[in-house]
Structure formats: structure tokens, C-alpha cells
Amino acid sequence: MTRSGVFSYQDPSGKEIREYRPPEEVFSADSMALLASAPVTDLHPPVMLDPTNFKTYACGNVEAGTIRREGDLLAGVLILQDAGLVSAVERKDRTEVSCGYTCETEATPGVSPQGEAVDRVQRGIRYNNVA
Q1: Average pLDDT over residues 61-88
Q2: What residues contact residue 127 under an 8 Å CB cut-off, 6+ apart?
């Protein structure tokens, strides 16, 4: 579903920002627990999911008890319950997943343990959904 390492984002001006997601943050037990039965969406919704918008965006869920670390990867089983999303996966129109989450970023330029330049470090990752 996701991984630790360096991710590239664009700020509002279009500048590339490289953020490091350390393993201790990506695989924090508190963060991973939030993925148990988390909603699955078709692409990233414009807002985080909550009880007021769940019916609008949810297309399935993460199967409870399947969240696990596999090296630098965070894995789990997704249960798709929306016919449109199932068809998109079968047609291979949807081939990747991405976690929706919140976090705090530290403006700490440097180099990741893998030797990649970084502008910021993500801390306190709190997963909300899987797109």
C-alpha cells in the first residue's frame, strides 16, 4: 500500500519538494492500526474520509488483520465492493494504490539513509484511507 523512503511532491508554485518517510514513522504501530478496516477509495478524494462523507467516497475497505510490514513496504489486503472500481482494476485502469494520510513535516534538508537528497521529513503519519 505504501513504503518508507523519499517521495516527491509539488508545492503550490510547482516546485518539487522531496520528503523522507522514515521506517519508524511509516511502520509505527499506532499509524498501522488506523489502516485496519480503513476505507478504500477510487483515486484520492478531495477530503479525508469521516462519517459525513464516507458513503460518497468509500468503495471497499482494508481487510482487518492483514496489515503488515514487508521490508520497506506496508502491505495488506484490499476488499473492493464497488462495481465501478472492480471493473477499473480488471481493465487495468487502476494498477497502483496510495494511502491518504496526514502528517507533520519537519523542514530538515539533508540526505536519506539511501543517499537521496531530502527537503523535509514526515513525522506522525496517520493513515485515513487507501486510494
Answers
A1: 96
A2: 31, 32, 34, 35, 38, 99, 100, 101
pLDDT digits (tens, 9 = 90+) for 91-105: 999 999 999 999 999
Environment class of residue 32 by beta-carbon count within 10 Å: exposed (0-12), middle (13-18) or buried (19+)? middle
Residue type, 123: R
Instruction: Quote the mean pLDDT of the chain.
Output: 96
pLDDT number for residue 19: 97
Q: How many residues does the chain have?
A: 131
| Long-range contact set of residues 43-48: C-beta below 8 Å, sequence gap at least 24 | 43/131, 44/98, 44/100, 44/131, 45/100, 45/129, 45/131, 48/100, 48/102, 48/128, 48/129
Q: What is the pLDDT of residues 31-56, one digit of tens each?
A: 999 998 999 999 999 999 999 999 99
- Residues 130, 24: contact at Cβ < 8 Å? no
